[in-house]
Design goal:
- By secondary structure, the chain is α/β, with parallel strands linked by helices.
- It has a domain of 227 residues: Spore Coat Polysaccharide Biosynthesis Protein SpsA, Chain A.
- 33% of the residues lie in helices and 14% in strands.
- The strands form five sheets. It has a four-stranded mixed beta sheet.
- The longest helix has 19 residues.
- This is Glycosyltransferase bc10.
Length: 390
């Protein structure tokens, strides 16, 4: 009878077999149980946060400060006026912009009397009659107009005193007149010493094709910035929101409506931002609009003005240009500037420089410039076609 090698093995060989291929090992049960327990514990901690002090550190290195329930900070009770103002401003911002078949730019001139650069502006406006509106607020003398574009464009005007709320009143009055025309989509505030730096098409496309307002706004912690703030503006206007900027704005229709709709914040500046008040000089035209729009729509403003002014001399008033200074090189240099510049008034004199961004692209900042003496008119007329094509 045939026998097989397996039957000739001893007893010990049957107890310790040595198979050629070892089957895979089973995962230890205790690891599976441990993972399950930890998972359940974490889920429980998420659903029912631990309250005991020692337990907090199991789940957070910061202790119970981050895990224990902290009652929310109570919202400040708004007065009737503040509540109404906030609701109106919110709804204006949420309302889709009005679209016009013939969008126009409102050019609003704030001047004491006649405009010395009417001939230059006449050349600027020539051939674009249906794309602009003009409004003139002459606060001292009835202006004499030499351009057909300005004839009959005077609005009712009151006396304007530099540095006082009457300056803001005049701006709001200009906006009120300009907003009556539903085709006016952008509103530019200009002075009697302002001149255009580009041709009309360039300016029109620059303003109409963007959805922001060019309102100058920056934080100045120095005596000529936050040092002008008064705590009487509380609770509606806090010091951390107090901003500064040049008054020469260019704003879209929604922001023009907000400027007229606001009475609450305007009143705070009317009562508590005055020259010589509480031992400090606060000028409403430098602080009201920058502060207002920093509070209600900070993302909707450019934080720089499209009107250039040179403060490099460090005086109370900006540099004013004489006839001999008005050259092609000067105007070319101004039109090529592509960054805004602010300097704080504290001891550090911090220079805040930012690129001028237009629809996400870096572009030259300025469409207009001031302050030019009337004697520069002939030079500007001679150079206009050259420097506006830069």
């Amino acid at each position: 009878m045939k026998t097989y090698p397996g039957w000739r093995l001893g007893i010990g060989d049957f107890i310790m077999p040595a198979p050629r291929h070892r089957p895979p090992l089973k995962r230890p049960m205790w690891i599976i149980v441990l993972i399950s327990m930890v998972s359940l514990l974490l889920i429980g901690a998420y659903v029912y946060p631990p309250r005991r002090y020692a337990a907090c550190y199991i789940f957070s290195s910061e202790g119970c400060k981050t895990l224990e329930w902290i009652p929310p900070t109570p919202v400040r009770d708004y007065s009737d006026d503040e509540l109404a103002t906030r609701v109106v401003i919110r709804d204006i911002l949420m309302t889709p912009p009005v679209h016009s078949k013939n969008p126009k730019i409102a050019f609003m001139f704030l001047t004491p009397g006649s405009l010395p650069f009417e001939k230059l502006w006449d050349k600027f406006f020539l051939g674009h009659d249906e794309r602009f509106s003009i409004y003139v607020h002459a606060s001292r003398d009835k202006p004499v107009h030499g351009s057909r574009y300005f004839a009959g464009r005077d609005i009712r005007a009151d006396k304007v005193v530099w540095g006082k709320i009457s300056m803001v009143d005049a701006e709001r009055r200009l906006l009120a007149y300009a907003l009556q025309d539903p085709d006016n989509m952008h509103f530019v505030l200009l002075s009697d010493s302002c001149v255009p730096l580009h041709d009309f098409d360039y300016v029109y496309n620059y303003l109409i094709d963007t959805n922001i307002s060019f309102i100058d706004c920056f934080e100045d912690p120095g005596p000529h910035g936050s040092g002008r703030y008064s705590e009487h503006m509380l609770p509606e206007v806090e010091k951390k929101d107090f901003r500064k900027g040049a008054q020469w704005f260019s704003m879209k229709r929604q922001h023009a409506m907000i400027t007229l709709a606001d009475s609450l914040y305007y009143t705070k500046f009317k009562l508590h931002c005055k020259p010589g008040m509480e031992g400090r000089n606060c000028y409403a035209d430098e602080h009201y609009l920058p502060t207002l729009f920093y509070m209600v729509d900070p993302g909707g403003i450019a934080n720089w003005s499209v009107t250039h002014v040179d403060w490099s001399e460090g005086k109370w008033h900006p540099k004013a240009y004489r006839a001999k200074e008005v050259t092609y090189e000067l105007l070319k240099n101004i039109t090529s500037i592509d960054h805004s510049l602010h300097v704080t008034s504290d001891e550090r004199k911090e220079v805040q420089q930012k690129a001028c961004m237009w629809n996400g692209m870096k572009r030259p900042c300025y469409l207009f410039a001031r302050k030019f003496y009337p004697e520069t008119l002939d030079n500007l007329l001679h150079l206009f076609s050259n420097f506006t094509s830069i």
